[in-house]
Write a structure and sequence with these properties.
heterodimer; A: 266 residues; alpha/beta; Rossmann fold; disordered N terminus; B: 357 residues; mainly alpha; two-stranded antiparallel sheet; 4 strands; 3% strand
């Protein structure tokens, strides 16, 4: 991965695609035949009203849920049947909507565990973890990049909600994935904390070899970051295009983004 | 510090307690050569290792197993059956280990791969079922195991009490085969505990803790947690079987009551909880306190009861009568769990206000 030619090749072939992706819960079809192709260097925002199937769609891609029908291709390889850990190893990174950390482990250890996994250190049981200074140093660097450097020895559960969200994002960054999946990364954050996460995402966008997916309610965030917007409604993909077009389309204006009177102005 | 894998006791009181226990265990044959003291000291060594291996499962991965005595029993019976049928030779000891340890590991592997994929409660139920089946099997296959009577056997020449290795006139105390057996048990138990301490502080061991904290997230980070849990289960089984082998060597006997019964399982659970789960050091403290109480509380109470009677106090002589020792043991445990929910080690460490890592 270190040599330029290989990196270039990865860049050329990286793609993520869902084909007729469907999941049924009993009679309810939560995601219904969604076909979409995501390209490197592009940040795609996935929007839609509550219950539209956005997080379910994410869960299907990252493997927490198994598709009832359809398939998911990463770099042309069918990953529809792969388990969650194998998808992560294949290059999918996910930051969760509800913060999902190791509550009683230190902040640094949370990140170090992600780095350890990405470095392929899974079953080494013969040497103490603290002799792996390289892993610790990288964890600290990532914590500094999300402004959590000063909190590294605190238990994750002792962090403020905003800091926990930042740690959640730091865990995904530590995996160095090919595909970044942000599920409402700024939810519940105070106004002054939001820019740290947005800057982080903006910095990621500069690396044109990555695919970034973002589920977000806040339209100002979507507007400032997205290169492309797809709209889900009742599990179906109902709009797909560049932000200006999608936001301007009447159907999105009225029904899904709540600009019309009486709807929430998220 | 590297012998402790960078995970020192982190509490002065705990360090002092550990030093006292280990020093007492090291000098027991010289200072208290009586049979009872030697038996108690050996049991502490063996159970410290056994409880530490159970802590690897319960404290570090959060999985509840009821099959730990089964692995302990496999180690015991393997040694007993080998020495019983092959005669008292080192080859028989080696054969017992060569059969018992892999058998325990394979069984743990099977149970793990079969049941650790799903909910933790399923693993608990499966281990309970397999352990019950094994207990029945051990008492039914009497041609092999001696049934309820178990198997008594002779030790190799070198380990017998009659074998004098260093006579009394040399240092002032005698070193015989029994003393040698004791030190084999002590060193093996110490090696196993240090080995487990290394495992829980390795990158692998930290993943186990991550799984205990949030298995869902550990999977999302790319860890195939079923393998981590299964390997931990195998390691715990190997140590338990080794402890069982030591137990058989010490007792020169293996039977359902000494190596397989569920009351041993309960003792292990109590020791790990009293000592402090997820600490490893808790196993040493828990085993020492529990076994000392089990063996000496009665004596202590009879002394106290007599003293109270002599002083003419009402009620107390009856309450402290040695026959009530189980009541007091029970109260002692309830109190310790109530006042130290994180175990003795957890309590001592919280008092020392440690940094998190």
């Amino acid at each position: 991965m270190k040599n330029v030619a290989l990196h270039h090749e990865l860049h050329m072939t990286l793609s993520l695609e869902t084909q007729d992706l469907t999941i049924r819960f009993g009679g309810h079809v939560a995601v219904n035949g969604v076909s979409c192709r995501f390209r490197p260097g592009e940040l795609t925002a996935i929007v839609g009203p509550n219950g539209a199937g956005k997080t379910t769609y994410f869960n299907l891609i990252s493997g927490q849920l198994r598709a009832s029908a359809g398939s998911i291709l990463l770099d042309g390889q069918d990953i529809t049947r792969l388990s969650v850990p194998l998808r992560t190893r294949a290059g999918l990174g996910r930051a969760f909507q509800l913060t999902n950390l190791f509550p009683n482990l230190s902040v640094e250890e949370n990140v170090r565990l992600a780095i350890q996994s990405a470095s392929g250190v899974h079953y080494d049981m013969l040497r103490p973890w603290m002799t792996r200074r390289d892993l610790i140093a990288r964890a600290d660097a990532i914590l500094d990049s999300v402004a959590l450097g000063g909190r590294r020895d605190v238990a994750a559960t002792a962090l403020s909600h905003g800091d926990q969200r930042k740690l959640e994002v730091a865990l995904m960054m530590a995996l160095e994935p090919k595909v970044f999946m942000f599920d409402e990364p700024t939810a519940g954050m105070s106004v002054d904390e939001v820019p740290v996460v947005l800057d982080l995402i903006a910095r990621l966008k500069q690396d044109s070899s990555k695919i970034i997916l973002l589920v977000e309610h806040k339209m100002d965030v979507v507007r400032s970051l997205a290169d492309r917007i797809i709209v889900l409604h009742n599990g179906r993909l109902v709009a797909d295009g560049n932000p200006a077009e999608v936001i301007a389309s009447p159907i999105v204006q009225e029904a899904y983004l709540g600009i019309a009177p009486g709807k929430r102005t998220a | 510090m590297m012998i402790l894998s960078g995970d020192p006791p982190r509490s002065r009181v705990l360090s002092i307690l550990l030093v006292i226990i280990i020093a007492a265990l090291a000098v027991t044959p010289l200072v208290f050569p009586g049979a009872k003291a030697m038996n108690v000291a050996t049991k502490i060594c063996i159970f410290a290792a056994l409880v530490a291996s159970y802590d690897l499962l319960l404290g570090y991965t959060g999985s509840v197993s009821f099959a730990h005595t089964m692995f302990y029993g496999i180690g015991s019976y393997a040694i007993a059956i080998a020495l019983y049928s092959m005669g008292p030779s080192w080859a028989a000891v080696a054969t017992g280990l060569a059969i018992g340890l892999p058998l325990a590991a394979l069984l743990a592997l099977g149970i793990g791969l079969f049941s650790l994929r799903v909910e933790a409660i399923f693993f608990a139920m499966i281990t309970l079922a397999v352990a019950s089946a094994f207990l029945v099997l051990a008492s039914q296959l009497s041609w092999l195991t001696g049934g309820e009577d178990g198997r008594s056997f002779q030790l190799p020449e070198l380990l017998r009490p009659g074998t004098v290795l260093i006579s009394k006139d040399l240092f002032g105390f005698a070193v015989n085969g029994r003393t040698l057996t004791y030190y084999i048990v002590l060193v093996a138990a110490a090696a196993m505990i240090l080995g487990l301490l290394r495992v829980v502080n390795s990158p692998f061991g930290r993943v186990l803790q991550a799984i205990r904290e949030n298995r869902f997230r550990a999977e999302a980070l790319g860890y195939r947690t079923v393998f981590h849990l299964t390997y931990a289960n195998c390691l715990a089984a190997l140590v338990a079987a080794s402890a069982g082998a030591l137990n058989a060597l010490w007792l020169r006997y293996a039977g359902p009551d000494t190596s397989l019964s569920f009351s041993i399982m309960l003792d292990i659970l109590l020791m790990v909880v009293i000592g402090g789960m997820g600490t490893m050091y808790g196993a040493i403290i828990g085993a020492a306190i529990f076994i000392l109480a089990q063996n000496y509380l009665q004596t202590l109470m009879s002394v106290a009861s007599n003293a109270a009677a002599d002083a003419g106090l009402p009620l107390l002589p009856g309450l402290l009568h040695p026959d009530r020792w189980l009541l007091w043991l029970g109260l002692l445990f309830i109190a310790s769990v109530y006042f130290f929910p994180t175990g003795i080690v957890g309590r001592l460490r919280a008092g020392a206000r440690r940094p998190l890592r």
